[in-house]
Amino acid sequence: MQAQNLVSGKVINENSEALIGVNISVKDIPGLGTSTNFDGNYQLSLPNECSDLLFQYIGHEDVIKNVCFKQNKTLSLNVTLKEASEILGTVVISAGKFEQRLEEVTVSMDVIKPALIENKTATSLDRTINQAPSIHVVDGQANIRSGSGWSYGAGSRVVVMVDGMPLMSGDQGAAEWQLIPIENISQIEVIKGASSVLFGSSALNGSINIRTSYPTSEPVNKLSITHTAYGKPQRKSLHWYKGGYTSANNLSYLHSHKKDNKDFVFGANLYYDGGFQYKVISKRARINIAHTTYSKKIEGLNYGVKANIMRSKIGDAIMWEHDTLAYNALDNDPGNRNNGYLSIDPFITYKNPENSTKHSINSRYFRINIYPGYVDSTQYSNLQAQRFSNVYYTDYQFQKQIKNFITLTSGYTFKYSDGQDHEVYGKHNNINHSLYTQADIKYQRLNLSFGGRFEHYNNKGNIINKPIFRSGINYQIAKATFIRGSYGEGIRFPSIIERFVNYTIGPIQIYPNEELKPETGWNAEIAVKQALRFGAWKGFIDLAAFVMEYDDMMEFSFGLWGLPSDELMGFGFKSINIGETRIEGLELSMAGEGKIGQTELTVLGSYTYTSPLIKDKNHIYAQDNMDSDLNYLSTSSDTSGVLKYRYEHLAKFDLNIEHNRINSGVSFRYNSNMKNIDAIFESQLLELLRPLGIKDSRDRIKGNAIVVDFRLGYDLTEDSQLSFNIDNLLNREYLTRPASLAQPRTYSILYKIKF
Description:
By secondary structure, this protein is mainly beta. The protein is 5% helix and 56% strand. The strands form 10 sheets. It has a 22-stranded antiparallel barrel. A hairpin with a 3-residue loop joins strand 27 and strand 28.
């Protein structure tokens, strides 16, 4: 090694694009190697002998180049890597916090490409994510494989992340979907099952990681404009805008570029929705930026900052006036979330190619200001009158690769959340410390994964310590056939609002439960994935059997929790622990994309069957304000054991076809009847006190929902497209939950241009 022989060059793909982070090692000389920088360039010193250089990059075929040196010389060696032909071609990072092939991960994972988001004319990601296999979103809360019911946005068993950073509010513990830069998504990765080992609390039922796009050396500008008109509902009593016109408008802009050793991204969004529900109007303005610097002095070092700022006012009809006036909020008094948002995310990463290690620190300050403050009140000082929530989050991660087949990932996560709203929940905070580690082993056709996490949670002296573990195996039994099995544990701590809220939204009262306990659980599955290939078209079929169990499961329950002098005479909502539950099921999913002949064909589909059951129907979990003991049997509209607010059958399918300049597609969604809800919703007592017609609506609609969407687009030029979408093509009436009717048929026009 004393000889200064130097080999250098650039590594590109078949499209002549530079590949960042290609691993270059020297066979038979352990520890000698390097990786490509942000321009795809590399250089490496070699001894006076012949050496085999191994170029490896996820999703591409390995390349071996033999080079020989006799004395001090330099050699230029450029390499082109081809996409691996025998695999799906999809690379994910969420399963182990490093790049892996989709078919080799040990957990169930789905990937949603940005084309589906753009083609669906989505204005908020939670609407598009409903098309993903096994996911159902109600009131902003994601539910995977019936792991959750309905909690009106307070608390979540599914953590939503952007580039691996949780985007959950400090007081509600809910996903802030509208902050996601939907105009700059490279792909969405969905893990189904407990993911708490790597992602902490809120990942009890799974995780959704939105990965944003990296800038390229060629500057990119994208502009999209959408206009949506609400059609005529089926029933005349719902058509409050008869003779008028109600619509929504959305404008998004993205600019990204790479210059020298710096990346820059700027995005903006303006949105206004006149609403299909009377007086329920929503609007927002959002700006996001990202800046990354790749150090020229220290190889492998990059650092930067990402930021989001948004102002929004979102209308929300929590419950309808009556089934016959389902597009009117109760008392014609919808709630409004009038908020300002700010997130600042500094980060730094150092990758040392000499010892195959990586250090990264990712931080976030996330603040939500709630408007208006109590400006007219004499009860509070200026500081007390402010209404806000904060999240201070830092994650340090260390990663090391050993001999190209073991990846060790360890880290520490700190999270401090606080909130203040003296007329809603007071002032509270909590602190969460976590240590985690995971080992991923790849040996020939075998992939193994083992991990653990220790959670320390402190809420005003209420301290909880909990270790959790996970493991998984994936084995390639044939050229394109993979079997896997996994086990994972999880925990979720209750949010500030779930424990302390005492507030009226419109005429609806939500009550506190300071005794609410954390919920824990585990998930296990076995599955098989079969990759498919027809010419240039790649896809897969996946079949999984799974089981989940939860202790002290939290549910959002409607009942007689208040006093007769309260709104609705004491009826309202409250978060409670209902005991032990078990969810079993089967899932069949498929996905694929590529060309068949001259036609580009993209397919995404799934069928999910779940059996979500309470373990002990007689377990008493609460008392109402009449001192009546409450259990599953006394509070359920269906006493067969099925958990509330779940679907046993869920099916989805999306097909997109591109030929020449024409793009067309169709989406299909089906869910079976929501068999069980809170019994009080269908009781004669509630109908006498405040008629809502919930039972009549469920009987009339029969529960089963079939929704069909259609789209047709035309490429005006190589860089611009005009498309026309019809959502709810059949204009079907269906319930998203009790007292909430989904939107009627809508018509959208979308114009996109890239320049």
